[in-house]
Amino acid sequence: MKLQPDKFDVQSITGYGPGWVGINTEKVVNSVVVGSRGERLDWNCSRFEDLTAEHFAQLAALAPELVIFGSGQRIRFPQPVWLKPMMAQRVGVETMDTQAACRTYNILAQEGRHVVAALLLEPAA
Fold this sequence. Notes:
It is built from three helices and eight strands. The protein is α/β, with parallel strands linked by helices. It has a single domain (28-119), classed as Hypothetical Protein Mth938, Chain: A, CATH 3.40.1230.10.
């Protein structure tokens, strides 16, 4: 039986490491928002402590089905008040470390879901 690789015609995360992610063929070293419908935004924060409600309002404006929040090298949950715009739109939010968020984004994007990954990339130690 001949096996064909899955077609992956959306933005994919092709690698990750301390302080970086690969998006398609580009190495990104700053926090970024990437979406399965081609969305891509610089997410101007380099530490969890720098996050504000405005960062999450940017995600709600994209109107995805689901937001995956990669909270850095370890899991840290956003304050509930930051998530109000997404709750109002009935957008799901999942929080995990950034590496897990990268893997989960690829799976859901390949399924054809409108998913956005907000990836906090902290400076490498």
